[in-house]
Each structure stands twice: as structure tokens, then as C-alpha cells.
User: What shape does this take?
Amino acid sequence: MAEGTASPYLEIRNVTKRFDSFTALRDVSLDISEGEFVCFLGPSGCGKTTLLRAIAGLDIQSMGTIRQAGRDISALPPEERDFGIVFQSYALFPNLTVRRNIAFGLENRRMDRAAIDARVDELLELIGLPDKADRFPAQISGGQQQRIALARALAPKPGLILLDEPLSALDAKVRIHLRHELKQLQSKLGVTMIMVTHDQDEALSLADRIVVMNVGVVEQVGTPEDIYDRPATRFVADFIGAMNFFSGAMMRPDRVRVGGLELATVPNGHAGAQNVTVAIRPEDVVIAATGELAGDNLVDVNVGSVEFLGSFARAHLLHDAFATEPLVAQFPQTMVRSQGIMPGRPLRVRLPAERLRVFGREATHG
Assistant: This one.
């Protein structure tokens, strides 16, 4: 991410998009820095693709403004905006070779043939496919087609690259490999990239910042670490990763009651007697040390069931305070073996105060 930038490279202000009676975006405002890799993340229908298309000028917003590099592009058609785009389907021309596909935008700009050839050769080397220049799209793999679509978007050297779920059509192994390549390429070129995805692993591994969206609004903007460790709303906590949720009530700013348990928390802005939702991630549940008899947030549980998941196990822990849903904990497989964790066994665990999240009951959309 570029530092010391005087103003954002992309400024989105109060953008609303309506389709007849349906509102797809509601008063969205966002700043994106030059050289930043940003992911729009959320479930189907959350508005992430609509926002991308508004930035591209493919679906002009109903209200609000969009500025790129200080230039108001709010009402400009796509061809007058400075971006390249990669669609989920790649949209390669089946009757053109790989070389001609990459060169397509440059030829439309009537660039000199020698300059076009040099740029295409440069991009083929960059994506590692110089030997595929004379093949047709049907003769190369899906992963290679994705790279060609990216090279075509990069060819005119746009200031912004838009990616609409570009990896979702690929199988899992290829997708993991290509997202690593995509991140390396973006870092090398320093180009600003915005990617739409519903895959949280993709967003967490690629993005400098993630924009989590839900029903047309931005729920939270932050680094992957912020989004995962410090979710701002119950929706974000539930959508990103696994999370335990329990109903509770604040006793005072640093204490909360869940069932018959009184738990210490980090002060979170919620007042005493307020009904709240208490959350903790499965991996944050800690087995108490041998001889740890006193201290905050120690809970005696019984192991209900254990799921083997390779390098770790997921244990369902039973306690009267968690009557409606068991407390789910995630332990390394080595710990499961060494501690003899199995169904029916009593266990003492600790719920670290700094890992508990507390949300107001109203802190969710829908």
C-alpha cells in the first residue's frame, strides 16, 4: 500500500444504487489508496458486484460521486475511465490467439505494431506463458486463461484493475496457487486492484484491506487481521471464520453474565444490565494449565463429541450456561492426543477476556 498519499486514489462518496424498487447500495462511502489491493467481500446479493460495476461505469449509481486520481468519473461511460477488468468467465475471444487476445485493447487504441508486440511479449513473460502465445483459449487450461485475461486487462497500463470473482471457476488447488501468483504480481506492479469475492479465505490471503458488505451497506473496512480479530458487528463475526455466540447481559463495563457464568471482558462500551451477544472463536478456547484452579473465565465442561479434521480437532463442550448450543473449541491434534480429549471426559477450559467479543443485540443487519 502506498504511504504518504495526499488524497485517496479512489474516492467513493454516498453512493446509492436502485433498481426500480430494490436498493442494491445504500449510501456507501469508501477511500482506496494508490497501489492498494482491496477485496469487496460478502454473501450473494450484498451489493459487492454492483459497487464494482458502478466504479467501472457499467451500472451508473443513482446517487453519489466517484473520483479517481482526483478526476470525477461519476457519470463517465466505461471507455472514458482508466481501468482494466477481469470477469469471472474471463471473456476471452475464442477465435483469437493468446497473443491477439492480450493485444486486443492496444490494437483498438491504434498503437504502433512494434510497441504492441513488445508489450504483449512483456506480459507473456510476466505471467509465465510465453510458450502459449500462438495457442487459442480452448487449447489452454482454465488457470492459464485466467492469467491471459489478467494480462489483457493490464496491457494498456491502467491505473486500476477490477476483478469480478476471477478465481471462482477454478478448482481449489489451482485457485490457491493462482491467488498467490496474483498477490505477487500486484505487489510487483504496484497497481491498484479491487476484487469482488464471496470466498473469505481468498480475501484474507490477498487483501491489504477488506470491505465486508451486507444488504447494500458496508459493515466494516479493515485489514484482514482487523476483520478477523476485531469484527465490528455480529454479522462480520459470523461471516468471517467460525464463531461461538451466546446470549448474555452486561453486569458492569468489564463483566458479562452468560447463563450462570460470570465472565471478565475487556471494556467494550456496553452498559450494565444491557442485553448483549457474547462471542468467542473456537481456536481461542484454551485448555487450562494443570493445577490452574482459580482465575477469571475458568469453566468446567464435559466433552460431548470430537471431530477429527486432520491437523486439528473440533470439540463440542457441554455446560449448563451453553444450553442451546455447545461451546465449540478447536484444538491441535497433538494436544488432543497428549491430553486424551475424548467424548465424556471432563475438561477445564479458559475463555480469555481479551478474546471475548461483545455485541449489542441490534448489531446485525437482517
Summary: Residues 1-5 have pLDDT under 50 and may be disordered. The chain has two domains: 10-236, 246-360. The CA atoms of residues 266 and 354 lie 6 Å apart. The chain has nine helices and 20 strands.
